[in-house]
Structure formats: structure tokens, C-alpha cells
TrEMBL record:
<dbReference type="InterPro" id="IPR006684">
    <property type="entry name" value="YbgC/YbaW"/>
</dbReference>
<dbReference type="InterPro" id="IPR050563">
    <property type="entry name" value="4-hydroxybenzoyl-CoA_TE"/>
</dbReference>
<dbReference type="Pfam" id="PF13279">
    <property type="entry name" value="4HBT_2"/>
</dbReference>
<comment type="similarity">
    <text>Belongs to the 4-hydroxybenzoyl-CoA thioesterase family.</text>
</comment>
<dbReference type="InterPro" id="IPR029069">
    <property type="entry name" value="HotDog_dom_sf"/>
</dbReference>
<protein>
    <submittedName>
        <fullName>Acyl-CoA thioesterase</fullName>
    </submittedName>
</protein>
<keyword id="KW-0378">Hydrolase</keyword>
Amino acid sequence: MFISETTVDVRYAETDQMGVVYHANYLIWCELGRTKIVKDLGFDYAKLEDDGFLSPVMDFSIQYKAAMRYGQTATVRTWIEEHTNLRTTYGYEISHEDGTVAVTAKSVHILVKKENFRPVALKKIDPDWDAKYAEVAKF
């Protein structure tokens, strides 16, 4: 299983009055991880959009385990949990510098034509990308 990794320095603007990261910011960090894994695998999401396709989120689940605070560095690990004909599930783990897990999450995406939002299989658009996802997927 291929795991992509990136870091995020927790900024003051990402925290709430209690000094902990506001919960919605973890979703943004997951998006950073998803973008990074696509790039690390050798593909370009912006080109996919330029070619007339989008990858909307169909489902997102997140489990909060240990708060992060301003000044800390978060490590975002991302992998392909599952890849089928029409859906890709990304897995995420966001952790503290000492390895303590702050968040685990999953997002489910489909691929659609930008003009009409009709689903389309990645294999029809980019067979190499589809094959790579199938190769590195956990399931």
C-alpha cells in the first residue's frame, strides 16, 4: 500500500477560542493530502479538470482522537483505501509530531463530466491513472 505524506504547520487562524484546531480545518488538511497523493503517484488533478472532469465528494467521515494546537506540526498521511469502477475511497491519518493520532478519516469520490455531472469511469479517461490506483489500493 502506497502512503503519501505531507506536513501542515498549525496556524493561529486555524484554532478556536480554546486554542485547539477548529474541527473543519481537518477536512482542508485531508484535501491537501488527497492532492499530494495524486501528485506523488504522477498525475495532475488540475489537468483532469481542464479536460472537463470533476471528482466530487460523495461521503466524508472523520473521527477526532486528540486535539492539535497552534504552533504544532501535523503530519497528514493519505492512501487509496479502495478503488472501484466508479468510486475511489481515500484514507487519512493526521498525527502529532510524536506520532499521536489526532484524526482518522475517509472520503469517497466519484468522477463526473463537468458539463452534466454524469458519472464516468476513470479507466475510460485515463487508463494509467486507473491502473495505478488499482495497484496501490488497500482493498
